[in-house]
Each structure stands twice: as C-alpha cells, then as structure tokens.
Amino acid sequence: MHKWKTNLGLALILVALSVNLQGQSQEGVKNLGPVVNSKYSDFGPFVSADGKTLYFASDRPTGIGGQDGWMSHKVAGQWGEPENMGQPFNTQMNEGPDCLTADEQTMYFTGCNRQGALGGCDIYVTQKQPDGKWGEPQNLGAPINTKFNEANASIAPDGRNLYYVSQRPDGLGGWDIWVSTKQDGKWGAPKNLGPGINTAENEMFVFIHWDGVTLYFSSDGRGGFGNADIFRSVLMPSGWSNPVNLGPAVNSPDKDFYFTIPASGDLAYFSSTRSDTLGQEDLYVVPVPMIMKPSGLTLVYGIVADIDTCAPPTKDPKLGTPIYDIHTCTPVESVIRIADSKTDQERLLSKTTPQGAYKVVLGTGADYNLTAYAKGYTFHSERFVVPAEQAYQEVEKNILLTKLKAGAVVVLHNIYFDFDRSVLRPESKTELENLVRLLNGNPTMKIEIRGHTDSKGSDEYNIRLSRSRAKAVVDWLALEGGINKDRLNSVGYGESLPIASNVSDEGRQLNRRVEFKILK
Known about the structure:
The chain is mainly β.
C-alpha cells in the first residue's frame, strides 16, 4: 500500500471491505476491452442515467485533436464502437465530457485552452440540438470559472447544484471540490466542501450520484491502496459523512480515478493505470458491492404526444378503456415538472426532446407529481409514490395531451377524497395548482368541474356525492387559487358517465373521478 496514513477507524473499514468483498475483489474488475479502449489514453468515463451510453475522453489520433470527447452505446449488453462527439464540442485543444442531465439533453464538460477562456481549463455547457448533435458550447463564466483551473463538473439530478474541482488558492490545498447552487437561472458563489471532504492534497474527479446525496471522488491525500483511491461520502442532515475508501473491489496499487454509476447503481465505471491496460489509461467496469450501493431509484421515461393525432385506439378487454399506440401519435415538445404532491414544491423542471421524449429520475421515500405542459394544450399529470425501500425500477409512462378547445374534457388524475366524503386531501394540491396555472395562462377560459362516481350506491347518493366533490374543487380554485367563480361551474353526474367497466375494482376506481370540461 502507498501513502498509508494511520487511521484505526478507516483501517477497520478497509479490513471489513476486504473480507466482505473477496468475491468481488480485483477479480470482479473488468477492462472494457479493445472495442472501447485503445493503445492511447482512454479515461474520464461518464455513464448516462439509464446505463446505455458511455462518454469518455481519449487522445486516440482518429479524433479532431488533443483529447476529444467520445461516446459508446450499449446494444444487447455490449458496448459498441466509440463515436467522436464532433465539432463544436471537440476542438484542436483538450476536451473531456464530465456529466449529463438525466434526459441527456444538457452536458457539462471541461475544455482547456479554448479561445475566450478565463483560465487554463474551464467548465462549459452544451445543449443537444434537434438533429442530435451538440450545440455551441458556452463557458459557464464567473463565479464558477476563474483564472485558475476548474474541471470535472458533476450536476445533481435536480439541476440546481453543480459540483466540480478547482485549483483556486482559497481552498485547502491542491485541487479541492466545490459546489455552486443555481438560483433564478444563475450560478451562485461556489462553496468549498470543507475539511470533511477536502485535504491539503488533491481531491478530484467528483461524481454526485443520481440519488443526489451520494458523492464519489478520487483523493491522493487520504491514504489507501494506491497513488489515488476512490472514496464515497453521503450527504446527511448534519453534512457530509466521513469519506469511506471503496476498498479492493475498486481500488488497486495503481492510480484509480473518475468513477461513475448509472441510476440502477449496479455497475461502476472508472479509469485506471493498472497493469492490464491496453494503453496508458483504460476504462474498467466492476459490480457495485451491496454494502456500498446507492439507494434505489425510479427512472421514468416516455413520450408526450397529441391524442387527436393518434390512430384509432383498441379497447382494454377487461376495463373497456381505450389503448393508444404512442408510436402512431404526433409528438409534442413539452415541459416536464416534478413536484411534491402534498406541498407542490418543485423538484425538477425540464423539457422533452423535439420528439417528445423525456427521462427523469425519482428518489425513494417521496410522493411525486409528474406533469407535462405544452403551449396550446391542457396539462396531464401522473402521481408516483416511491417507497423508501423501493429497489431500482424503470417505468415507461407515455403521456397524451389534449388541445385547448371548447368541449375538451380532461380527467384530473390526482384529486383525492376520503371515503364517502367531499373534503380534499393534501395530496390533491399539486393537481389543483396545475389547473390554476392553466386558468391563469388562459384568462378567458371558462370550465365546468364534473364529479363522477362508480355504480355502487343509489343514484341519489351518487349524484349528491359527485356534486359535493365537484363543488369542493370549485371552492378550492376560488378561495385558494384566486380564480374568479364566474369562470367556474360545478356539476355532479353520479354514475351516468362511466369511462371504464364497473365490473372490477380497477374499473370502478377509474370511474370515481373529477374532470374538467372547457366551456369557452
């Protein structure tokens, strides 16, 4: 071991890791092989949230010049031939992709000695264009970049915190890890992560996991197995936990750096200079030990499209509800908003691709509302309750939007009442705020709030319950949402207008609904 420092607590952790991970020690580490690696330097991997695209830097001579950004796609479990990311991302100077948003539409990267830079190496951002290529990079400027070197950016899943490393002299020494928070569209003054993370030596190659709280970084100032080891820290209410060496499952007597994990948390990719490299540095993969695995996440993806353009639907044989083939529908470029269901606190705001595709990552132990908005359309929302113990999962949720027009009827999917009552529950707040935003954005619109029940109970009871629930929504819109009551009308239809079969519990649940109809 090199540069080992006396630390009994860390030593005991490393011994435990060595014992528990023998089945996943260095034998579990695999070189990605000659399809991805070359006889030159291949390093700095970053894997997309879904684990299907791998970005990295390489100085192989088939690029544009210097160190270029490259990417490889996984097909049938195998990484394909790397593709150069092309201009204007790459130049004759050195570039390296650092991180990507979950929807794969925004990339942050390090560029060195580019024209107009503030320092030797600066952090840049680029957006994916409709043709799939990366657009003209923009220097993030001050206060993130300085006349010193900044590099290795990692964006948190909510897009609001950017972690990166810098050589600015007001740190603790060498390269330090810093974080900047975006407020009102601007990056704030960066904060040093402090002596709990940084040392007098070098902390680099930072990666914040898709869970937003697990931080991985490389350090040559904390001792360990080699010249530089990879460590893990978790953001707690009290601050960052003491960094833990990832142990022999990842670290070796050589230099191990750049660490990235997809949202699934099952595999880790990193760079190393170990003896079996094909070149100077190679890319490697290793299973993530269960005791070091990030918490489970839910990756939600799909397409937003115009329901009026879809091919005629088929019918669900059990429920009687329409089933649309999303691939026959015209995509709608939309805004995707993630919020807390009970408080409407916004967690994430992003856009779909021009092809209507979206991809978001949801953490565990929360109740979310995912809403799609587009100009000229009503909104559509879905509720996602992700238990704290939920394992990683991928959920496809295609969304169909209805154009704003008189006569359009839209189900409010996330309006909740207690059994046999007409008092709105707290988790209805986000859906109601969505409707307030729609009405405020269309000040001449008038709507009818329509209450419905299933077929259980008498007609009189169902009419009375559906009326009182529709009125409860109108009252909330007027009193809490500030909408003029002249624009609102409430009607209870009881069980007279089912949208599904009343034979099954699932069908009856669909029929117990509140919706709105555009009158004007």
